[in-house]
Amino acid sequence: MTPAKLCSALVLGATGLVGSTLVAKLKNDPRYRQITCLVRASAGLASANCREVITDFSRLQHYGEYFQVSHVYVCLGTTIKQAGSKKASRDVDFELVYQAAQLAAMHQALSFVWISSVGADARSRSFYLRTKGELEEAIFALDGLNRPAPVRPSLLLGERKEFRLAERLAAMFAPIYSPLLRGRLAKYRPVGAETVAEQMIGLQHFG
User: Fold this and answer.
1) 30, 61, 17: which is closest to 156 by C-alpha?
2) Of 27, 32, 186, 199, whose CB count within 10 A is highest?
3) Is 10 helix (H, G, I), strand (E, B) or coil?
4) What average pLDDT does range 58-84 have in this prediction?
Protein backbone atom coordinates (compact mmCIF):
# COMPACT_ATOMS: atom_id res chain seq x y z
CA MET A 1 0.00 0.00 0.00
CA THR A 2 1.06 3.57 -0.61
CA PRO A 3 2.42 5.17 2.59
CA ALA A 4 0.35 8.12 3.72
CA LYS A 5 3.23 10.55 3.35
CA LEU A 6 3.64 9.51 -0.28
CA CYS A 7 0.01 9.91 -1.31
CA SER A 8 -0.78 11.73 -4.53
CA ALA A 9 -4.11 13.14 -5.66
CA LEU A 10 -5.83 14.06 -8.90
CA VAL A 11 -8.64 16.64 -8.82
CA LEU A 12 -11.17 17.26 -11.57
CA GLY A 13 -13.40 20.29 -11.10
CA ALA A 14 -10.74 22.08 -9.09
CA THR A 15 -12.03 25.59 -9.82
CA GLY A 16 -15.61 25.14 -8.61
CA LEU A 17 -17.10 25.88 -5.21
CA VAL A 18 -16.18 22.54 -3.62
CA GLY A 19 -13.18 21.84 -5.84
CA SER A 20 -11.30 25.02 -4.96
CA THR A 21 -11.97 24.44 -1.27
CA LEU A 22 -10.79 20.85 -1.59
CA VAL A 23 -7.55 21.81 -3.34
CA ALA A 24 -6.74 24.33 -0.62
CA LYS A 25 -7.18 21.60 2.00
CA LEU A 26 -5.11 19.06 0.08
CA LYS A 27 -2.22 21.52 -0.28
CA ASN A 28 -2.04 21.78 3.51
CA ASP A 29 -2.52 18.07 4.19
CA PRO A 30 0.85 16.51 5.15
CA ARG A 31 -0.29 13.14 3.80
CA TYR A 32 -0.05 14.43 0.23
CA ARG A 33 3.20 14.94 -1.64
CA GLN A 34 1.65 15.91 -4.98
CA ILE A 35 -1.69 17.25 -6.15
CA THR A 36 -2.55 17.44 -9.85
CA CYS A 37 -5.50 19.51 -11.09
CA LEU A 38 -6.97 18.99 -14.54
CA VAL A 39 -8.31 22.41 -15.56
CA ARG A 40 -9.67 24.00 -18.73
CA ALA A 41 -7.52 27.08 -18.19
CA SER A 42 -4.96 28.18 -15.63
CA ALA A 43 -6.63 29.13 -12.37
CA GLY A 44 -3.60 30.07 -10.28
CA LEU A 45 -3.67 26.82 -8.30
CA ALA A 46 -0.05 25.84 -8.88
CA SER A 47 2.28 25.72 -5.87
CA ALA A 48 5.21 23.69 -4.59
CA ASN A 49 3.05 20.57 -4.21
CA CYS A 50 0.29 21.34 -6.72
CA ARG A 51 0.37 21.48 -10.51
CA GLU A 52 -2.19 22.47 -13.10
CA VAL A 53 -2.62 20.51 -16.32
CA ILE A 54 -4.52 22.39 -19.03
CA THR A 55 -7.01 19.82 -20.26
CA ASP A 56 -9.26 19.32 -23.27
CA PHE A 57 -12.08 17.51 -21.46
CA SER A 58 -13.58 16.38 -24.76
CA ARG A 59 -10.50 14.18 -25.04
CA LEU A 60 -10.20 13.12 -21.41
CA GLN A 61 -9.20 9.59 -22.38
CA HIS A 62 -5.88 11.00 -23.63
CA TYR A 63 -4.95 12.15 -20.11
CA GLY A 64 -4.83 8.69 -18.58
CA GLU A 65 -1.29 9.09 -17.30
CA TYR A 66 -2.49 11.62 -14.73
CA PHE A 67 -4.77 9.01 -13.17
CA GLN A 68 -1.75 7.07 -11.93
CA VAL A 69 -2.28 8.49 -8.44
CA SER A 70 -3.34 7.31 -5.00
CA HIS A 71 -6.63 9.20 -4.90
CA VAL A 72 -8.98 10.63 -7.50
CA TYR A 73 -11.39 13.41 -6.52
CA VAL A 74 -14.11 14.48 -8.95
CA CYS A 75 -15.94 17.72 -8.25
CA LEU A 76 -17.33 18.23 -11.75
CA GLY A 77 -20.89 19.46 -12.07
CA THR A 78 -23.11 21.86 -13.97
CA THR A 79 -26.75 22.87 -14.51
CA ILE A 80 -28.93 22.79 -17.61
CA LYS A 81 -28.95 26.60 -17.63
CA GLN A 82 -25.19 26.77 -17.38
CA ALA A 83 -24.56 23.97 -19.91
CA GLY A 84 -27.22 25.11 -22.37
CA SER A 85 -29.13 21.84 -22.78
CA LYS A 86 -29.94 18.56 -21.06
CA LYS A 87 -27.47 16.75 -23.30
CA ALA A 88 -24.67 19.19 -22.53
CA SER A 89 -25.49 18.94 -18.83
CA ARG A 90 -25.40 15.14 -18.93
CA ASP A 91 -22.10 15.25 -20.82
CA VAL A 92 -20.57 16.84 -17.71
CA ASP A 93 -22.59 15.32 -14.87
CA PHE A 94 -22.54 11.76 -16.21
CA GLU A 95 -20.17 11.20 -19.14
CA LEU A 96 -17.12 13.08 -17.84
CA VAL A 97 -17.38 11.68 -14.33
CA TYR A 98 -17.88 8.15 -15.66
CA GLN A 99 -14.87 8.51 -17.98
CA ALA A 100 -12.83 9.62 -14.98
CA ALA A 101 -13.97 6.52 -13.08
CA GLN A 102 -12.98 4.32 -16.01
CA LEU A 103 -9.52 5.88 -16.13
CA ALA A 104 -9.14 5.52 -12.35
CA ALA A 105 -9.99 1.83 -12.69
CA MET A 106 -7.63 1.36 -15.61
CA HIS A 107 -4.71 2.90 -13.72
CA GLN A 108 -5.61 1.33 -10.37
CA ALA A 109 -6.05 4.42 -8.23
CA LEU A 110 -6.49 3.37 -4.59
CA SER A 111 -9.82 5.16 -4.27
CA PHE A 112 -12.29 7.27 -6.23
CA VAL A 113 -14.52 9.89 -4.62
CA TRP A 114 -17.01 12.07 -6.46
CA ILE A 115 -19.82 14.52 -5.73
CA SER A 116 -23.30 13.13 -6.27
CA SER A 117 -26.43 14.60 -4.68
CA VAL A 118 -28.86 13.93 -1.89
CA GLY A 119 -31.85 12.21 -3.47
CA ALA A 120 -29.86 10.72 -6.35
CA ASP A 121 -32.08 8.05 -7.88
CA ALA A 122 -31.90 6.45 -11.32
CA ARG A 123 -35.73 6.26 -11.31
CA SER A 124 -36.35 9.87 -10.27
CA ARG A 125 -38.59 12.14 -12.36
CA SER A 126 -36.04 14.90 -11.86
CA PHE A 127 -33.52 14.96 -14.71
CA TYR A 128 -30.78 16.11 -12.34
CA LEU A 129 -31.41 13.47 -9.67
CA ARG A 130 -31.96 10.76 -12.28
CA THR A 131 -28.63 11.57 -13.91
CA LYS A 132 -26.85 11.46 -10.56
CA GLY A 133 -28.53 8.15 -9.71
CA GLU A 134 -27.69 6.58 -13.06
CA LEU A 135 -24.10 7.67 -12.59
CA GLU A 136 -23.89 6.07 -9.15
CA GLU A 137 -25.22 2.79 -10.52
CA ALA A 138 -22.81 2.87 -13.47
CA ILE A 139 -19.77 3.62 -11.31
CA PHE A 140 -20.59 0.95 -8.72
CA ALA A 141 -20.95 -1.58 -11.55
CA LEU A 142 -17.57 -0.68 -13.04
CA ASP A 143 -15.07 -3.54 -12.90
CA GLY A 144 -11.70 -2.88 -11.30
CA LEU A 145 -12.51 0.43 -9.63
CA ASN A 146 -11.11 0.57 -6.11
CA ARG A 147 -13.24 2.01 -3.29
CA PRO A 148 -15.75 4.14 -5.20
CA ALA A 149 -17.50 6.54 -2.79
CA PRO A 150 -20.03 9.28 -3.58
CA VAL A 151 -20.63 12.31 -1.39
CA ARG A 152 -24.30 13.33 -1.46
CA PRO A 153 -24.68 16.95 -0.35
CA SER A 154 -27.89 18.93 -0.34
CA LEU A 155 -27.82 22.64 -1.20
CA LEU A 156 -24.22 23.86 -1.21
CA LEU A 157 -23.44 27.01 0.73
CA GLY A 158 -20.63 29.29 -0.38
CA GLU A 159 -19.73 32.01 -2.86
CA ARG A 160 -19.95 30.75 -6.42
CA LYS A 161 -18.38 32.51 -9.39
CA GLU A 162 -21.73 32.45 -11.19
CA PHE A 163 -24.95 33.87 -9.77
CA ARG A 164 -27.74 31.36 -9.05
CA LEU A 165 -30.87 33.12 -7.78
CA ALA A 166 -32.63 30.02 -6.43
CA GLU A 167 -29.56 28.93 -4.49
CA ARG A 168 -28.97 32.46 -3.19
CA LEU A 169 -32.53 32.67 -1.86
CA ALA A 170 -32.37 29.19 -0.36
CA ALA A 171 -29.11 30.06 1.36
CA MET A 172 -30.59 33.27 2.77
CA PHE A 173 -33.44 31.37 4.43
CA ALA A 174 -31.34 28.35 5.44
CA PRO A 175 -30.90 29.52 9.06
CA ILE A 176 -34.70 29.50 9.39
CA TYR A 177 -35.61 26.15 7.86
CA SER A 178 -32.47 24.09 8.55
CA PRO A 179 -33.29 23.48 12.26
CA LEU A 180 -36.66 22.07 11.15
CA LEU A 181 -34.99 19.36 9.10
CA ARG A 182 -34.49 16.59 11.62
CA GLY A 183 -34.26 12.80 11.61
CA ARG A 184 -34.62 11.45 8.09
CA LEU A 185 -34.89 15.00 6.77
CA ALA A 186 -31.54 16.08 8.22
CA LYS A 187 -29.74 15.04 5.03
CA TYR A 188 -31.55 17.85 3.20
CA ARG A 189 -29.96 20.57 5.32
CA PRO A 190 -27.76 22.99 3.33
CA VAL A 191 -24.08 22.22 3.75
CA GLY A 192 -20.93 24.29 3.38
CA ALA A 193 -18.35 23.56 0.69
CA GLU A 194 -15.72 23.11 3.40
CA THR A 195 -17.76 20.34 5.02
CA VAL A 196 -18.18 18.55 1.70
CA ALA A 197 -14.46 18.82 0.97
CA GLU A 198 -13.67 17.34 4.39
CA GLN A 199 -16.12 14.49 3.76
CA MET A 200 -14.41 13.71 0.46
CA ILE A 201 -10.97 13.53 2.08
CA GLY A 202 -12.39 11.40 4.88
CA LEU A 203 -13.64 8.82 2.38
CA GLN A 204 -10.22 8.28 0.82
CA HIS A 205 -7.95 5.33 1.56
CA PHE A 206 -4.55 6.28 2.97
CA GLY A 207 -3.08 2.79 3.36
Assistant:
1) 17
2) 32
3) strand
4) 94
Strand ranges in the chain using DSSP code E only, listed in sequence order = 7-12, 32-39, 50-54, 71-74, 111-115, 148-151, 156-157, 191-192
Task: Kindly report, residue by residue over 120-173, the tens digit of the pLDDT.
Answer: 999 999 999 999 999 999 999 999 999 999 999 987 775 555 545 455 554 554
* CB neighbour list of residue 143: distance below 8 Å, 6 or more residues apart: 105
Structural domains in the chain, CATH included, are 4-156+192-202 (3.40.50.720)
Question: Distances from the Cα of 6 to the Cαs of 140, 141, 148, in angstroms?
Answer: 27, 29, 21
Among 203, 207, 171, 187, which residue's Cα sits nearest to residue 22?
A: 203
The overall longest dimension of the chain from CA atoms, in Å, is: 48
Give the H or E element holding residue 134.
Answer: helix 127-140
Q: Do the Cβ atoms of 155 and 169 come closer than 8 Å? A: no
DSSP 160-180: -SS--HHHHHHHHHHHHHGGG
